[in-house]
Every structure is written in structure tokens, then in C-alpha cells.
Design a protein that fits this description.
The protein is mostly helical. It starts with a helix and ends with a helix.
Length: about 80
Amino acid sequence: MTNVSKIESLKFENQKLRSYISLVLAEIQLVERISEIKQNFTNPSDFNRITVPMLDRISKIKSEKKLLEENLNLN
């Protein structure tokens, strides 16, 4: 492997790690937001209406994270 290809490989890995970090931060923010909403809404239908899209996004984030974890050998 040449130095140029090593550098390109490291850049690509760095990009994947940055994506992973962004996903982790997004997941944390959504979980915190759901917790805040739960404290402010006593009506379950209102809570569900607001949080279901957020829970769907968390699920997608977890899937994306899992792929990156496997790709980066983080598991």
C-alpha cells in the first residue's frame, strides 16, 4: 500500500468515525428530547403523536450506527 493510498484510507476511516460520532450525538439528543416531552405531556395520544417520528429516527440511527460499528470494527 502506497503512502497516498494509506492517507486516503485514513481519511475515509476518519470520515466514517465522524459520521458515527454525529449519529451518537443525534441519538442522545433525541432520547433527551423524548424524556422532556414525556414530562410535559400527560395525554398518551399527544405524547405518541409527537414521539413516534422521533422513535423511528432513533431506530434508523441505531441501524446506521450498527453498520458503521461493524465496518470500523467497534463492536
